[in-house]
Design brief:
Helix content is 47%, strand content 17%. The chain has 198 residues and is α/β, with parallel strands linked by helices. The chain has a seven-stranded parallel beta sheet, sandwiched between helices. The longest helix has 20 residues, at 164-183. This is Protein containing YHS domain protein. InterPro entries: LDcluster4.
């Protein structure tokens, strides 16, 4: 089964590092090179650059839209469609979409970002999901270490790197660890608990 990565980041990149778009594109490419599928919020900016990278590397790109339909996605939200194999229209606006988006993947990657990106990060953090932060891209990505420290909730399952390839490889280690725990033989207590639920 392929790895599923969400790329979360700023739709408007004026405040991001000057090369954040290029690095988001590289993340999309690295996801495909590492047998992954890209999932984004089907928005402009950082997620769209990642989607372009994934598609140009021959991979699969899925969008999860805040809109309820193709028409609303394009006309009301003014969001892109070009670099996606398909888009799921949630009709849940941004906050509802963010929950579905982060829960759809094995890991979430933060690149630059504003408040919406922080919302996606905190959902993933609360869900104890593997999170990768592409440092040096500006915005929320460069504040995450400080936010986590100030949150007093532990370090989470976060890996940090400034290199897209290394970041993906670090996340795959965490994803594989999750798979090993699921595939591990059940203990006697777990077997008894399972039988008690039937």
């Amino acid at each position: 089964m392929k790895y599923k990565f969400v790329v979360s980041g700023a739709a408007e990149i004026g405040h991001c590092a000057v090369d954040a778009d290029k690095r988001a594109y590289e993340v999309g490419q690295e996801i495909v090179k590492h047998d992954g599928i890209l999932i984004t919020g089907a928005t402009s900016g950082i997620p769209d650059f990642a989607a372009r990278g994934a598609k140009e590397a021959g991979g699969i790109s899925i969008g999860i839209s805040p809109a309820a339909s193709y028409t609303a996605h394009v006309k009301s939200y003014k969001l892109p469609t070009e670099h996606y194999d398909f888009i799921i229209y949630t009709g849940f606006d941004y906050s509802g979409r963010n929950l579905l988006l982060t829960r759809s993947a094995d890991a979430v990657i933060t690149i630059c970002g504003r408040i919406g990106t922080l919302n996606e990060f905190t959902i993933a953090f609360e869900d104890n999901k593997p999170i990768g932060v592409l440092e040096g891209t500006g915005g929320m990505a460069d504040e995450i270490r400080h936010i986590v420290d100030m949150g007093h909730r532990g370090k989470g399952r976060i890996v940090y790197d400034s290199d897209p390839k290394r970041l993906i490889e670090k996340l795959i280690v965490l994803i594989e660890k999750d798979k090993e725990e699921v595939d591990a033989p059940e203990t006697k207590e777990e077997e008894e608990f399972g039988r008690g639920k039937e």
